[in-house]
Amino acid sequence: MNRKKIMQILTRTQGAYTLSTDSQKLDINTIHHFLAHDSYWARHIPRETVERAIKNSLNFGVYHGNSQVGYARIISDYATIAYLGDVFILPEHRGQALSKWLMESIKSHPQLQGLRRWILLTADAHELYKAYGWTALATPDRWMECHNPKVYQG
């Protein structure tokens, strides 16, 4: 079964802002620019990699009018686990509780309910995520990773 066909598109409004899971609305130029130039976690990421990640994720876009001002994506099996990544609100739109609205929308998404585990990585937004149920790893000695922080550097 193709999950893209059964995925419910959600749209919400808050003042002058709209949040949508419609991947057709995403501004890939804005997403790529932020990730490649302004993020600490995906600096130098190729556009083709961003496009492939978007294609294979549940995407949440935040818009002011027709301009994309925020983004997050979920990688999940929709049964047991979800990974939250690439979360951002553009600097000129911060301070308006958009990240909280984005997190509430993600955590309440109907197809992300009943999961056994949610995971994410963050260097600077611990307090935001704690408000939505994330904690430090209870058993960090059980976790392993293969991490290549220079994968996008020429």
Automatic annotation (TrEMBL):
Annotated ranges, domain N-acetyltransferase: 17-149
InterPro entries reported in the protein's UniProt record: Acetyltransferase_Butenolide, Acyl_CoA_acyltransferase, GNAT_dom
One Pfam family hit: Acetyltransf_1
SUPFAM superfamilies: Acyl-CoA N-acyltransferases (Nat) (SSF55729)
The species this protein was found in: Shiella aurantiaca
Protein name: GNAT family N-acetyltransferase
